[in-house]
Every structure is written in structure tokens, then in C-alpha cells.
Amino acid sequence: MMLDIQNKRQQSSRWRLLSFMVFTVIVIAGLVKLGLWQSERGAHKEALERQLLTHQHQSPLSLTDIKKMPYDKITGLPMSELVNLHPRVRLLLDNQRFNGVIGYQLLVPATVASESFLINIGWLPADLSRDVLPEIPPLPKRINVTGWVKPASQLVVLDQAYLMEQFGSVYRIQTEDLAAISDQLDIELLPWVLLLDEQQDWGLPRQWNWVTMSAEKHYGYAIQWFAMALALTVALVVVVMRSRRREP
């Protein structure tokens, strides 16, 4: 009788140990995966930072030159071109901060020959009421622009009803979804946005942040995830060894 009870206790203890081991191994695998992902992000940001540094010292290119470049190499390329701005359509990119204040970034379609793309003109403050749009300053119809090429961001918008809200010829958008914008405006847009040079005076403030998180921070997070995985691995080994010592 006592032997049966002891056997049942041992089996229950082994099942608890096995469950703990399986759960811990799954957590360790998840931590390692997060560490590898942060390492990849760090390497990507490091390459991007080198690319941006190289492009800063490059002479401005024309639209024809930009189109010849591989898409993964266009970030931060300087561009100078004589463009025709759309006379009516204005896009307000929502939830954009400038010096800690929420507002919009003003985007306007521009055309060179038969090619069209968006130009980010700068920042506008938002009204306290969502029903009141900011006053958009008058813009020239034809002007030489200088700026920096940036691939369009593709943030996920859960409610598609707010993806593009139309107010006459003004659209409030939640993300630079160029496919949706092209369909709505019936204008075929190139897959990037030109950030107007901060030194060009168009009456709107602008400050472009190319990298939201540096490569060093990504590597730091990767080290943290790997350290946690190592600590759990050591703890698992200690628990298993102690359990085996207690077994008769």
C-alpha cells in the first residue's frame, strides 16, 4: 500500500517536472527568437544608418536617376526637380508630432512629365475638434523642389473606414498607403514620398526622423532577450539535476 502511494507520488512529480520542462523550453525558444529578431533589426538599422550617411554627401539626383536606383537603396537619396503641384488635392497624414504637439503632415501630389509622386510639405497643428481641419496655406503650382526620398510607411489600419476620410478636395489619411491613395485619387503614384528639404521655406515647419530606434538599442534588446534565455536554461538544468538527485 505504501509502495503504491509512493509510486503515484513519484509519477505525479515526474509529470510536473515534465510539464515544467516543456513550458520552460517553449519560453526559452520564444526568447531566443525575439533576440534573433532584434539582432536582425539592429543589422538592418546599422546598414540604413550607413546608407543615410553616404547619401547626405551626395549631389541631388533627378527623378530619372532615382527611378534607375534599386528600391532598397533609395532611402535618403537627395532629389531636385522642377515639379507641377496638384492644384486642389491635399492629404493630411494624421497623428504626427512636432515638438511634442499632435498635428498633421501635409502631403501633395506632384508631377514631372507623366510621373507622379507625393511630396511631404511639412507639419500643421491639429484643432481640438476632429471635425475642424487645419488651414492649409496656398502652394505654388510649379516650383523647383529639393528633398529626400523615403519609401512610404505601411502602418496597419484596423478600421478601413478611417483609412481615407474625404473633405472635399482634402483627405485625412492614417497611413501612406499609396495603393489606396492612387485608387482614390485615380493617380498612379511612385512607391515613395519626397520629404521636402528642411531648409526650403514653404511656411511650414518640418523635422524628419529617419530612424525611430538606433541599431545600438536593437542590439541592447537582443542581449537582454538572450540573457533571459540563458538564465532560464541554467534554472532548468538546476531543477532537473536536483530532481534526479531526489529520486531513489
Automatic annotation (TrEMBL):
Annotated keywords: Cell membrane, Membrane, Transmembrane, Transmembrane helix
Chain segments annotated as transmembrane: 17-37, 222-241
Recorded topology in the membrane: Multi-pass membrane protein
InterPro entries xrefs: Surf1/Shy1
CDD domains: SURF1
Database matches in Pfam families: SURF1 (PF02104)
GO cellular component terms, A-Z: plasma membrane
Subcellular location(s) of the protein: Cell membrane
Family: Belongs to the SURF1 family.
Protein name as it appears in the record: SURF1-like protein
Source organism: Echinimonas agarilytica
